[in-house]
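Work Package 3 committed the consortium to producing structural models of liganded targets before the mid-term review. Because experimental data for this complex are still outstanding, the team generated a predictive model from sequence and the ligand definition alone, so that downstream docking and mutagenesis planning could proceed in parallel. The input record is reproduced below exactly as it was submitted to the modelling pipeline, together with the SMILES string for adenosine-5'-triphosphate.
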Amino acid sequence: MRSIALANQKGGVGKTTTAVHLAHGLALAGAVVVLIDLDPQGNATLGLEGMVDDSGNVSDPESPFSVLQALQDHLWLLPSPGARRNIDRGTVPDTRKLLALRDALAEAGVDWMIVDCPPRMDAWGWAGLELCERVLLPVQSEFFAMHGLSQMIQTLRAARKQFPGRAELLGVVPTMVDLRESITHEVLANLRRNLGEKLLQSLILRDLTFVEAASHGQTLFRYRLDAKGSLAYGELVREVLHGRT
Ligand SMILES: Nc1ncnc2c1ncn2[C@@H]1O[C@H](COP(=O)(O)OP(=O)(O)OP(=O)(O)O)[C@@H](O)[C@H]1O
Ligand SMILES: [Mg+2]
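The resulting structure, written out as tokens with the ligand in place, is given here.
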């Protein structure tokens, strides 16, 4: 099983949007995919409510799928504990249980595990790094993009020391890109200079349809397949599966 965490301690950069579209895109490409919502805010869980398919749920308590919510298109979700009820401040994730679930899902033939992390490196964010081999960093294409990123890259270095074989940087993906703004080109050139090959080729364009799709509890792949945001995430899925062209 391959695993990718979406992490960045900066808020609102497109972690959740990338997590749900990457997970759904990989599932549409034929893989068995489990999305883990590790953010107590539960945005991924709420943003997928329109794709819930209770008929696919597994009740056998022996199966690792029994704790997951079935979604359309052979996609599975471990909902955030905070999505439907308030969890107490200071509640920490049961990392041992999550690691056991990860191993059981791998054993059961799951192809991909995608983990949506919260916008801070607290116990939940750290658990996301411990769970995954790879980390994808979404970065908003704005003037200070590189500044926040270097902090996160240091965090990943510390995580790799603590969890050998985990938290390898898969790449950085620019989000909310508007190519009509001249600053965008400067920002992208700066990211390329600093990150080299770690800057992915895929660019996620700004597309207001994302907000609409999320309010319907769906990904853009379901809500509007021909939107430019769908094409952009389709390209990211292709890059994750097959590398650069
Ligand atoms: N490419 C895009 N174009 C336009 N809007 C976008 C795009 N990507 C995300 N958004 C919107 O921006 C907001 C923040 O995105 P998202 O929730 O994915 O970020 P996040 O990093 O997960 O935030 P948080 O740090 O709060 O978890 C959401 O309303 C989302 O719908
Ligand atoms: Mg989020």
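Reviewers should note the following from the model. The chain has one domain: 2-242. These observations will guide the Year 2 experiments.
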